Amino acid sequence: MKPQTLLLTSTIVFASCQSAIKNNNEPPKDSLPERTSDVILPVPKATDNPAVDKPEDLLGYWVGNFEPDIDRDSLNKKMVYYNEDAWDRTNKINVSIDSIEGNTIIGHSVDAGTSQAFKGLYNFHNNTYSIILKEPGTNKYDGTFNMTIEKNAPALTGNWQAFNKIDIPRRKFILKKVAFAYNPAQELEDYARFADWGKWVKNKVDPETEGWDKSYFTTTEDVIKYNASNRLLTEDEVANLKKGDLYILRNSIYARHGFSFKNRPLRAFFDRQEWYVPITLNIKSYYTVLEKKNIALLLRYEKTARSYYDTFGR
After folding, report:
1. What angle do CA 123, 12, 64 make, to 5 degrees?
2. How far apart are CA 32 and CA 30, in angstroms?
3. What's this model's pTM, rounded to 2 decimal places?
4. Up-side HSE of residue 312: CA atoms within 13 Å toward CB?
5. Secondary structure, 3-state, the chain
6. Is there a contact between 135 and 30 (Cβ–Cβ < 8 Å)?
7. Are 118 and 107 in contact (CB under 8 A)?
8. Residues 95, 145: contact at Cβ < 8 Å?
9. Tens-digit pLDDT string for the chain (314 aa)
10. Bridge-partner residues for 60, per DSSP?
């Protein structure tokens, strides 16, 4: 979903949740100018209530996994396998509800290195909030969020349906309200291994194998030794680190600021970090002085560092 700004007229009326849902696959009539990554995304003024009692409790970041909702055979064809892991095309998404006027909701989503605006309505019936949010329809990846939450419940549940025929036209989610705060002390959880998928390199794992092989550079156990956001790294510390460790240490700075990664291997890695919340596409103005120094040091060593390689299927 490309970043865009949404401007819609609020002429939709929810006669009932069911009647609104019948038309949720039609894109809105209005189109909007594109939003670029240089634009600072809105920050909702969320209430402290993690559940939804009053409509204003809907304001805030709602975060969770954005999972493909397609048949198993189709999903298996879209899986990415590496080492002993597999990525099923699930992304972590942030559905940010930025403002509520009457029963009209305005907000934006952040996932997979993109942001998209949306607008829609909520309806309260039988102790349940039913919400339909539509993206502009000017991009082929636009669609409709269809979600519900019971009063005083902690999670929004629902699905997203694309307007057009795309690779994964339907996704499902369970989203919880998150209060994001930059925390330089956030650590990479245990030994979460990163792999940069599908690099064609000379086979270095098995000397008896000739030619090129599908291999990838990875992190080692050293990646969890250092935190590049809360202490100044030294040249002695980083000089002997592998390329994958340097790469993840640098990108962990961006992740702590809520940067949404477009790169698929980075998404698969940081989405598994429980503390990670994608909130922005541009973080250059947010780096601390210490982080700027560490980024420069890590980039310098990344250029000449040797990679630790593994091979698919081993």
Report:
1. 50
2. 7
3. 0.82
4. 15
5. CCCECCCCCCCCCCCCHHHHHHCCCCCCCCCCCECCCCCCCCCCCCCCCCCCCCHHHHCEEEEEEEEECCCHHHHHHHCEEECCEEECCCEEEEEEEEEEECCEEEEEEEECCEEEEEEEEEEEECCEEEEEEECCCCCCCCEEEEEEEECCCCEEEEEEEECCCCCCCEEEEEEEEECCCCCCCCCCCCCCCCEEEEEEEECCCCCCCCCEEEEEEECCHHHHCCCCCCCCCCHHHHCCCCHHHHHHHHHHHHHHCCECCCCHHHHHHHCCCCCCCCCECCCHHHCCHHHHHHHHHHHHHHCCCCCCEEECCC
6. no
7. yes
8. yes
9. 444 433 333 333 333 444 433 345 555 544 333 444 456 799 999 999 999 999 999 999 999 999 999 888 888 887 877 656 778 899 999 999 999 999 999 999 999 999 999 999 999 999 999 999 999 998 889 999 999 999 999 999 999 999 999 999 999 999 999 999 999 999 998 766 888 875 544 555 555 554 445 567 789 999 999 999 999 999 999 998 999 999 999 999 999 999 999 999 999 999 999 999 999 999 988 999 999 999 999 999 999 887 765 544 33
10. 97
Question: Cα angle vertex 120, ends 37, 174, to 5°?
Answer: 75
Measured CA to CA, the distance from residue 200 to residue 219 in angstroms comes to 17
Report the candidate in 52, 33, 43 with the shortest Cα–Cα distance to residue 97: 43
Strands 143-150 and 104-111: unpaired
User: What backbone phi and psi angles, to 5 degrees, belong to 207?
Assistant: -60, -25
Relative orientation angle of helices 243-256 and 289-302, to the nearest 10 degrees: 150
Half-sphere exposure of residue 265: CA atoms within 13 angstroms, side-chain side: 19
